[in-house]
Design a protein that fits this description.
The protein has helices at residues 9-25, 31-51, 54-59, 73-87, 93-101, 107-118, 123-129, and strands spanning 136-140, 146-150. By secondary structure, it is mostly helical.
């Protein structure tokens, strides 16, 4: 994950979400379906948060873990714990500490906090990306490894 406040950090956060999917999908035979369901659930809450007033944003809690009735509860909890332990080390230190301090230690809550901190897809992201379409830039890959990326038109 990129550090907060960098010029392309919101775009890099979006890229990070795409990079994480195959890693999570490799945990079990159904984990990628569960990840997609969790991400859909989180995006719904994030879209509400984006359109909310500042006071409403403060009141909005992160989404609860997604309940999967087709799996037993122990399997779901174990998968949530494994994904949480994968996500936490990838976060910038201050965001990780904040998530731990608020006890938001489940994937949906972590993703919601990441989206709220980086705000990918918000108007400030569009303002940065549109003028630079088609140019190369260096971004931060999963868990801080440097990768070279070319934006496409």
């Amino acid at each position: 994950m990129p550090q907060l406040g960098q010029k392309y950090s919101s775009v890099d956060a979006s890229d990070w979400l795409v990079e994480v999917r195959p890693l999570v999908g490799n945990l079990s035979t159904t984990s990628s379906m569960r990840w997609d369901l969790t991400l859909k659930h989180v995006m719904k809450a994030y879209n509400q948060w984006i359109s909310a007033t500042p006071l409403e944003r403060l009141r909005q809690k992160p989404p609860e873990p997604v309940v999967d009735v087709s799996r037993n509860k122990l399997y779901t909890q174990r998968l949530e714990q494994r994904v949480t332990t994968m996500l936490l080390p990838c976060l910038p230190e201050e965001l990780g500490k904040d998530i731990i301090a608020t006890r938001s230690l489940w994937p949906a809550a972590i993703l919601f906090r990441v989206l709220g901190a980086y705000q990918p897809g918000a108007s400030r992201t569009i303002a940065v990306v549109v003028p630079f379409q088609g140019t190369q830039r260096s971004s931060i890959g999963t868990c801080g490894s440097s990768v070279k990326e070319t934006s496409t038109k």
